[in-house]
Amino acid sequence: MTAPSPDAGTPPTAATAVRLDLPDGRPVTHRDVAANGARFHVAEVGEGPLVLLLHGFPQFWWTWRHQLTALADAGYRAVAMDLRGVGGSDRTPRGYDPANLALDITGVVRSLGEPDAALVGHDLGGYLAWTAAVMRPKLVRRLVVSSMPHPRRWRSAMLADFGQTRASSHIWGFQRPFIPERQLVADDGALVGQLIRDWSGPRFQEDGADEEALAVYRRAMCIPSTAHCSIEPYRWMMRSMARPDGLQFNRRMKRPVRVPTLHLHGSLDPVMRTRSAAGSGEYVEAPYRWRLFDGLGHFPHEEDPVAFSTELVNWLGDPEPDR
Question: Under a CB-based contact definition with an 8 Å cutoff, are residues 154 and 276 in contact?
Answer without folding.
Answer: yes
